[in-house]
Amino acid sequence: MFAADHLTLGIFLPLRFYQGDMAVLHAQAQHVSEIERLGFAAVWVRDVPLFDPAFGDAGQVFDPFVYLGYLAAHTRHIALVTGSAIFTLRHPIDLAKSAASLDRLSGGRLVMGIASGDRAVEFPAYGLAHDQRGERFAHSVDYFRQLLAQGPATIRSPLGQMSGTQLLPQPVTGRIPLIVTGSSRQSLQWLGEQADGWLTYPDATHTAQGPLRLAEKVRAWRSQIPNGGFRPHMTNEWIDLDEDPDFPRTPLQGGYVLKTGRNGLIALLGEWKAAGVNHAALGIQMARRPVDEVIQELAEEVLPLFPTLQGPAPLAQGW
């Protein structure tokens, strides 16, 4: 997925939004197998524990770890990404157990986008205070990483105490990358020091000014990375890909969706690459054209310009 001065493409799931009928998710795994075959770098799933009709978006519907485990069995090498696991609502032991299990079962293909949560209605359901999510998020990240360290751990955290025990299994490489979403109510310094990568909203996508503002944000974050080492930046957009390749970049639904032809999308991706973005996750839930048609056009006309990197082969997956 990631290299300096390079941009790769992923696809956000679901391919069609749930609107009261689970049938829209039928055969999605077969589409994911085709997305892998066509050469996309990653598939992304969201984490929405409770559907809030007032929010209007049920997200992926399935539990992200269960569903990525299912997709791992239907694929062999595509990266499997949470976008994003809510680190405030689950205990870090449960998060680490699920994540390490999925990483092992998939041969080391898990990348974890993580977030502090933006749906206030979920927090009282868990018995948690919404206004304390920033502090809980930071504690959870620290606890999670200590759990995945080698050997028995001694942990003293506001989220729990443990000594002399160990979490199994361990991740394939000993570490699972944590991609922080937005600020997650942390300082830019914390994001520079603690985030293995950063996922942010793209700003406006119908003009060149949005990517320029995004570039400023990326530079400010990277200035906080200790020793100036490379860490990837990601962004995403929901697109309605028009049949006319020259259809201009046009914001819909208050800027939530970008209607564009493929040439406008290619221009946007080039602007993102110049801004320092290393991976773009595209959601096609709002596209009016059939899913397979949109995926095929992206694969044939756009993906060759932003090719997936030749990463290491996944490890054992024959569990």
Automatic annotation (TrEMBL):
Annotated protein name in UniProt: LLM class oxidoreductase
UniProt xrefs under InterPro entries? Diverse_substr_monoxygenases, Luciferase-like_dom, Luciferase-like_sf, Luciferase-type_oxidoreductase
- Kindly state which keywords UniProt assigns to this record, in alphabetical order: Flavoprotein, FMN, Monooxygenase, Oxidoreductase
One Pfam entry name: Bac_luciferase
> What is the species of this protein?
Pseudomonas qingdaonensis
Q: Does the keyword Ribonucleoprotein apply?
A: no
> Which Gene3D superfamilies does the entry mention?
Luciferase-like domain
Q: What are the Luciferase-like domain coordinates in residue numbering? A: 9-202
